[in-house]
Each structure stands twice: as C-alpha cells, then as structure tokens.
Amino acid sequence: MTESTKTVTRRWWVLAVICLAQLMDVLDVTIVNIALPGAQRELGFSVGDRQWIVTAYSLAFGSLLLLSGRVSELIGRRTMLVAGLLLFGAASAVAGAAPNFTVLVTGRAVQGVAGAILAPAALSLLSTTFTDAKERATAFAVFGGVSGSGAAIGMLLGGVLTEYLDWRWTLFVNVGISLVTLAGAAILIPRQAKTGDRPRLDLPGTLLASAGLFCLVYGFADIEANSWPFLPGGVLLLAVFGWWQTRAAHPLLPPRVILDRTRGGANLAIFIGGVGLFGAFLFLNYYLQEILGFSPIMTGLAFLPMVAGLVLAGGICTTQLYPRLGAKIPVVAGMLLAAGGMALLTRIGRDSSYAADILGPLMLFGAGIGAIIAPSMDAGTSGVEPRDSGVASATVNIAQQIGGSIGVALLNSFAASALARQLVGKDASSPVVRADAAIHSYATAFWGSTAVFIVGAVACGLLLRDGKTST
After folding, report:
1. Euclidean distance between CA atoms 82 and 14, whole angstroms
2. Which of 90, 203, 329, 368 gives the lowest tally of CB atoms within 10 Å of its CB?
3. pTM of this prediction?
4. Which of the two residues, 50 and 416, has the higher pLDDT score?
5. CATH number for region 5-201+252-463
C-alpha cells in the first residue's frame, strides 16, 4: 500500500521543523561574535572576559551532547526536542536582557545546555523519520546544508541585527525562532511509541564522558591562557570512558555505534571538516573586515556564495552520489576541493579584490564542505538500531563541535606565531607593516587548514568503505 500524500507532505514539514532547530543551534556559534563590541561597551567587561561569551556556549554544548543523545532515547526524542526549544528560548531571553556580564555568560551557558539537548534529538528524529533511501538522501542533503552554512548565516544575521537594531537582538531573535519551531514540533512530530527495550543510563560513563569532553573543549577553547593541563586530562578521561564502555552493562556509547568503518569514518570526516571550516571561517572574517574594510553586513553577504556552493554540492553528493557510490568518493573529493580553496586563499594581499581573489576560492571551499558534511551525516547515522539513533546522532554533533574548537585553537596558534615572527625587527606602529603581518598570519592559517584537509582526504580514503552503505 502506498503512503497518502498527506503523510508524505507531513514528513517534509517535519524536516522544516528539524532544520529550524538545527539552524538555531549552529548559527548561535557565530551570531553573537559580531555583537561582542557593542555588548562590551554597554556592559563594561574586559577584552580578556569577552571570549567567555563564546566559550560558555561551546563548553556546555560539547560536554553534554553525548549524555543528551542517550537521554533522548530514554524519555523520547520529541520530548527532548520540545524541552530543548523551551530552554533555548528562555535562556536567550535572559541573555538578551542581561544587565551585566555574569548574567550574559550564564545565559550563554544555558543556551549551550539547550543546544546539547536539541542537536542529537533533531538529527535522531531526522534519521528515524526518513527511512526510504531516496527521501533520506534528500532530507540529509537539506539538513547538511543547514549545518554547514549555519555559521555564515549567523554572521550575516548578526550583522544585520547589530547594525539596524541592537546587539541584544542577536539573542532575542532565538526567542522567535524557538517559538515557531516549538509550535511546529507540537503539531507535526508524533509522540515516540514506548518500547520495553530502552537502555538504562550509564552513570559512570556519563560522568567520564561529560568530564572528558568538558576538559577537551575547555583546553582547546582557552588554549592561549595556559589551559594545557586540561587537554591530557580530557584525553585520559575519554580513554577511561572508552575502556568502561566495553564493560558497562548499558553503555552510554555502545562500541557497535562507532566501530563500524562507515560510521567511524563519517565521524572522522565531520571532525576534520569542523577543524578546517571553523578555523578558516574565523580568519577570512578577520581579513574581510580588518584588511578590506567590509562592514559586518557586507562580510555576512560575502559568505553567501560559499553557502550556495555548500548547499549545491551537498545536495548533489547526498542525493546522487552517496546512494550509488557510498560516502568515500564524495568525502575524499570534498576534502581535496576544500584544500584547493584554502590553498588559493593564501594568495591574498592588501590590494586583493573580492571578485578576483576571494569569490572563486570561497565557492570551491563551500563545495568541498558540502561534499563532506551532508553525506557524512547520513553515513554516520546509517545502519544503527532505533535505540541507538540518539547516541549516534550525538556522536556526529560531538565530532563537529570538537573539530571546530580544535580548529579555531590550533589555527589561531599558528596565526599568532606567524604574526609575532613577521613583526620582529619591524616598525609595529606602521599600518602597512601591521596589515602585511596580519595577512601573513591569515595565510599561515589557510595553509594549516589546507594541510588538515589533505591529511583528512588520506585518512578518510583509507577508513571509509567503498560502495553503497545500508540504511
């Protein structure tokens, strides 16, 4: 018996709801960045404290994702999505109305908690809603496009809201998005049927994973402030967590979820994509604003061709290539395309123009990211049992989040060192000298990103299986 048109249409409306939730999650990583100067002037916090408005979100988000993924299978994916939307809206309202720095940072941290609740629930719902291979490919292409382009959309939206309204609206806007998404979820997403085989919560695993991820994200997010002890601590805790998962009666992250070559390779691809994407995005943003003199809105608009390339490539790879060839070929090709785009961006200078020197490499880079992210998200959640869909989805989100944190920290370290070396023995008060040194540091970061993608192409080529994967 064929499905009714009403049932099929309802599924695509569910996709719209899920994508709205994911967009809010992803764009909040960058939407506040443009608002920071205005917030700093009004609330009077220091330059050193400024980073915590971004870091607080990443810390809560990254450290609680795995726990949230498993909890979504215990109490229901729809319930978790609704709870995450309510909490995100409330936290955004508090942060937007913050009278001081402490309230603002607390609101951002609670936003991160809500994001950690939302992300695995949204991806898990996508995975369980779309089971037909053709529909699933299209759904993941759309979802991957939203996930990959959310940072650029956040920059554009943040610029518009800051320039024409006020920095607080970069937070208040989430209240409206969460309410619209909440209404859609309540109407369109059915309640999860209760089953008798839902796993119990692995408390030791939860503590080890949350503490390990917290240390890892904190270590990389605050790497310049002597946070190195957190990195080995995080690695050690996660190693103990991995050992415990092979012995726990109800593991938080069942080894069967990530030991499969396809899912393991997909998570590696998303991790590497996050390293290259967020790091490169940060420095191109600096270059456009500080060297070429773009306004926040112009900067956001400048990234739209990258979004177009990302969405187009993600759609083609997920709907046409992945069902026929599997993830390996699109992912490896995407890594090489992204590496090529980054390598071309190393040619930037003080007199470069957007049309001649930025636009082409940016579109190439976007196409590469689209070819990596969308097929990998599909492959990373394919072939899992329904009871594991939440934790598989959380693992995919963790890979992207940790990759982004590491990418920003490492590439920023490369850039800072290159900047310092370039200024040795020169007149640092000269605007031309400072500009040339800054450009050199950005190019160094782009070379670092290029190397990351080349290594990723080799690693994913060796790990991912050839051919179509089962869903």
Report:
1. 13
2. 203
3. 0.77
4. 416
5. 1.20.1250.20
